[in-house]
Amino acid sequence: MFEELEIAKNKCAECQKCPLHKTRTKMVFSDGIPNTKLMLIGEAPGYYEDQQGKPFVGRSGQLLDKIFESVGLSREKDIYICNTIKCRPPDNRNPLPEEKLACREYLDIQLQTLKPKIILLCGAVAVQSLLPDITSGITKIRGQWFNGPNGAKMMPIFHPSYLLRNPSHEVGKPKWLMWQDIQEVKKAYDELT
After folding, report:
1. For the segment 37-77, what is each residue's pLDDT rounded down to a tens digit?
2. What's the pTM?
3. What is the 3-state secondary structure of the chain?
């Protein structure tokens, strides 16, 4: 059904448009289920993602799965997961502008092929990539809906690695805010036909 994704994935596996291809173990294209409802866009692959070729598989990914499970969603049935860039930057640094530009073709194909109705922007790099005119930090804009491509609703959310560094569930703290955000996402998801 989504042949374009498989073609783009194969092309991406051979990509040499930026120097990151020289240091990657595996290209990280996507995980979850291709669907038109819900897409999560992360920042860049980390160590474990680079080893396994899937996004969000380390401690951050385990937490992300628990967050989705808390509202009855799962990557196997409900969510398509990808990253802004498909190769791991050295030492998990943020992607450089030229790396994001080189990889944008693949993200655009993912967005155009699936045309998801809800897009979650997970972390600052994803926010900067899809909402370049927003200058506020993610703490100020998380949980808000923005207009996205193809009429999608986009919501910035905290990256799970940030939540791991801020473990308090106290009212107003990042984990509590994430709980509010994920409930809002589930509500919007349930309203889709």
Report:
1. 999 999 999 999 999 999 999 999 999 999 999 999 999 99
2. 0.96
3. CCHHHHHHHHHHHCCCCCHHHHCCCCCCCCEECCCCCEEEEECCCCHHHHHHCCCCCCHHHHHHHHHHHCCCCCCCCCCEEEECCCCCCHHHCCCCHHHHHHHHHHHHHHHHHHCCCEEEEECHHHHHHHCCCCCCCHHHHCCCCEECHHHCEEEEECCHHHHHHCCCCCCCCHHHHHHHHHHHHHHHHHHCC
Return the residue matching tokens 């092929």: 113
Contact 156, 144 (CB under 8 A): yes
Report how far residue 106's alpha carbon sits from residue 85's, in angstroms, rounded to the nearest whole number. 8
- For residue 164, with 0-12 CB atoms within 10 Å meaning exposed, 13-18 middle and 19 or more buried, which class applies? middle
Residues in contact with 143: Cβ distance below 8 Å, sequence separation at least 6, in sequence order: 155, 156, 157, 177, 180, 181, 184
